[in-house]
Each structure stands twice: as structure tokens, then as C-alpha cells.
Amino acid sequence: MHAISFESLLLDAKKLAKEVSPESRAFEEQRRLPTEVVNKLKRIGVFRMNFPMEWGGLELTSPQQTQIIEQLAVGDAAVAWCAMIGSDSGIYSGFIEESVARNMFTVDSITAGWIHPQGKAEIVPGGYRVTGRWRFGSGLSHCDILSAGCYVYQNGNKLLDAQGAPIWRVMMAKPDEYELLDNWHTTGLAASGSRDYCANDLFIPFEHSFSFSEPYRKGPLHDVPDAILRNMAGIPLGMARASLDYAISLAELKWSTNIGHAIRLFVEQPL
Fold first, then answer.
1. What are phi and psi of 73, to 5 degrees?
2. Cα 28 from chain centroid (whole Å)
3. What is the widest separation between alpha-carbon atoms in the chain?
4. Coil, strand or helix at 16
């Protein structure tokens, strides 16, 4: 197996996009990504994008990640969407204390889940008791860690920070510790498997939760907590490219009833 780099990942993403494109309809019918596709994403290194190089990750810049996601989206938007969501694992690991993060994550770990505070985390000895329901768990059918955003409570009261804002933390647990709901029926991105999930009094240790305002790792992926959004532009960019390619393939040669033979409607190298 070759060493994984940005260049190799970009090339492999292009190859994988060509492989998955003919299977898009089947993926949509299954309403989730097949295991073999997830394994291929792992093999080429997609989920390593945000892990530090000292861990064996790629530590790609946000523009580089956007290019990877764009190439995948040319083949299938749901594949790209799940790759984007799943690769946040490297970012999340930087908000966890190093020794704990090393035990929780490998460079190929996949995360999923709704990080915005839809649940309640009551402080108890050693951690939190978490209750709530979260939406849009894209990739929860194949993830290693399922996250859930919560407001923090103590003795039934919502805790506030020094500025008077509610304290928001993201809780992380194995997907089988939640109840996963089969309610993802949609006309778009059906293969992302973006189902709801819920918990009732689930215990989460303190160290398995984090706040985006408290990074342990420094650098551009952690100093400003918008890093999880920066590569998202790759999805519409890849879809737009696929749409243009499809239109060109249909319209490049058309039969003219006036002159009796095919005419070329597009230049061979469209801008």
C-alpha cells in the first residue's frame, strides 16, 4: 500500500468517484452507504484528513480538504457528505485531552452526529447523565463515535458561563449506546442515512465530552471552531461539476434535422 498524502488522496478520490457514480441509485434505495464503500473511503485515507501528522494523519488544510470532498461529490453527493462528516473526528480529537483522545480515536475513526445543543446533560459524579433526541445523524450506521450536543444542567438548572450564555458541550459515545431511529425517508441525500437518535439517562464521562471553546490542540483546525464547516463547499462544487459534465455529455453531439447529420454544440475543452 502506498503512503497516503494529499496528492494520493486526491487521485484516489477521483477514482472512487467514478466507481460509485453508477451505484448512486442503489445507495439511495438502501438509505445508507454500503460497508464496502465506507471501507474504501478508509483505505484511501479520507478520515485521516484532520488528524495530526504525529498521529499518522494528514493534517490537511481546509482548501485541500475541500478539493477532496469536491472530487467525491462529483461521483455521489451522499458519499461526499458522509466523508465530510466522518472526517471531523480528527478535529474533535483536538478538543479532548491527549491521552484520552489517543484511546478514543484512531486516524481512521469515523464520527457522526448533531453537535448543536438539542439534549440535556445533567452533572453527576464522574460525568453527565444525558437525555435528548438529535436529528440528522449522517453516517450513524457506520460511525465509530456518535456525538450529541447538550446544554449542561446541575440540580435541574441550566448552567451559564461568565457571559451569561448557556454552557454547551458535545457528548461522545458508541452508536450502540443510543437508540437509533429509522426515520430517514427523503428525496435527496437518502444514502447519507441521516437518521434521528436519542438517549435517556445515558452516562457520559466528563473526559468524553468537549467544548469548542476549550481546544487542547493548537493550530488552524482548532484555534477557531469553524473548521468543521470549511470543507462543506466541496459538496455543491462537486455536484455542480457533475451537472455540467452530464449536460455536456448530452448536448455535445446533437442530430440536426435541418442539415441531416450530427453537429457539435460545445467546444471540446469547456471552460
1. -70, -25
2. 17
3. 83
4. helix
Q: How confident is the model at residue 257 (pLDDT cuts 50, 70, 90)?
A: low
DSSP, res 259: T
Nearest to 149 by CA among 87, 184, 199, 85: 199
For 53-82, the pLDDT digits (tens) are: 999 999 999 999 999 999 999 999 999 999
Residue spans of alpha helices (H) in the chain: 6-20, 24-30, 35-44, 62-75, 77-86, 89-93, 98-104, 227-230, 234-251
pTM confidence score: 0.91
- 113 and 134 in contact (C-beta within 8 Å)? yes
- Give every CB contact of residue 113 below 8 A, 6+ residues apart in sequence: 134, 137, 140, 143, 145, 146, 147, 148, 197
* CA proximity to 50, closest of 6, 98, 17: 6
Ramachandran region, residue 139 (left: φ > 0; alpha: ψ -120 to 50; beta: rest): left
Q: What is the DSSP string of 124-189?
A: ETTEEEEEEEEEEETTTTT-SEEEEEEEEEETTEE-B-TTSPBPEEEEEE-GGGSEEP-----SSS
